[in-house]
Amino acid sequence: MAFRIDETDRKILAEMQADASRSLDEIARAVGSSKTPVWNRIRKLKEAGVIRQQTVLLDAEALGYEATFFVLIRTSEHEAEWQAKFLAALQARPEVQEAHRLAGDIDYILKVRVQNARAYDVFYQALISEVRVFNVTALLSMEEIKSTVALPL
């Protein structure tokens, strides 16, 4: 059975998406409730898997990661063994921030964050040495116009 989320849950989630470091008192005040019911709702949202984890967002450029590449991958390999090897290679690389399997002409798209083009080449060479791919196209993002992890609640 699916977990039901009501309007108060949505308000709590919106407040947490905006700034999860806020105190329980601040979140409760913002949603018009008291601390204990809000704490109970957050606990239930975590148990249901609605809240997967709480983390901190870092400024990539401030830490020297100035290049974002979107990597389009085509492969002629679709066997389970190849897919497992490919997944393991992606999981082992912290540069890969996102990976999606696609419908259409492109099989996979990766979002790769690195310091510069040279660092991307090191990533690329390592990846193709581990898994066979048919075609790789890398697109350098010139400017990040919008980036969010917040869901539209």
Automatic annotation (TrEMBL):
UniProt superkingdom: Bacteria
PANTHER family, per database record: DNA-BINDING TRANSCRIPTIONAL ACTIVATOR DECR (PTHR30154:SF17), LEUCINE-RESPONSIVE REGULATORY PROTEIN (PTHR30154)
GN (gene name): lrp_3
SMART domains reported for this sequence: HTH_ASNC
GO molecular-function term, one example from the UniProt record: sequence-specific DNA binding
All copies of domain HTH asnC-type, residue ranges: 5-66
Pfam assignment, any one: AsnC_trans_reg
Gene3D superfamilies per record: 3.30.70.920, Winged helix-like DNA-binding domain superfamily/Winged helix DNA-binding domain (1.10.10.10)
Record's protein name: Leucine-responsive regulatory protein
Keywords from the UniProt entry: DNA-binding, Transcription, Transcription regulation
One cellular component (GO) term of this entry: cytosol
GO biological process per UniProt: regulation of DNA-templated transcription; response to amino acid
